[in-house]
Amino acid sequence: MRKENSTNAINEKFLFQVCELNSAIAMIGGRWKSQIVYSVSQGNNRFHLLKKELPNISEQVLSRQLKELEIHAVIVRKEIPGTVPAGIKYVLTNKGQDLVPILESLCDWVKTYAEGKEISVCPMS
Known about the structure:
The chain starts with 6 loop residues before the first helix and ends in a 13-residue tail after the last helix. The protein is globular. The protein has a two-stranded antiparallel ribbon. The protein has helices at about 5-20, 20-30, 35-40, 45-55, 60-70, 95-110, and strands at about 75-80, 85-90. By secondary structure, the chain is mostly helical. The chain folds into 2 domains: about 1-30, no CATH class; about 30-110, Winged helix-like DNA-binding domain superfamily/Winged helix DNA-binding domain (Arc Repressor Mutant, subunit A, Orthogonal Bundle). GO terms for molecular function: DNA binding. Keywords: DNA-binding, Transcription, Transcription regulation. InterPro entries: HTH_HxlR, WH-like_DNA-bd_sf, WH_DNA-bd_sf.
């Protein structure tokens, strides 16, 4: 947990006040969040399915990224009725569903302007 009066916290507050885009980037920033959102949108809505779709992510990181997406109301956890132990699935909120085409557009943008890096496949487009 970051101290409220730390330089990082002060700078973050300033940037969020200057432009809402900084807040949006913080919300979906992180190495795996965009892939998680896209994977959930494609039906990989259980922890083990996400882990299978993103094999290089550790379970700890996946869990943390899911919690952060939940905090920002991009996804919600829902219990699957009739499962023992209780099964959990992840569902995109309206906010999360609205994010998918933005991520797809961003992926297209990156393909065009990737600064000479060869990008062959972007799973979002």
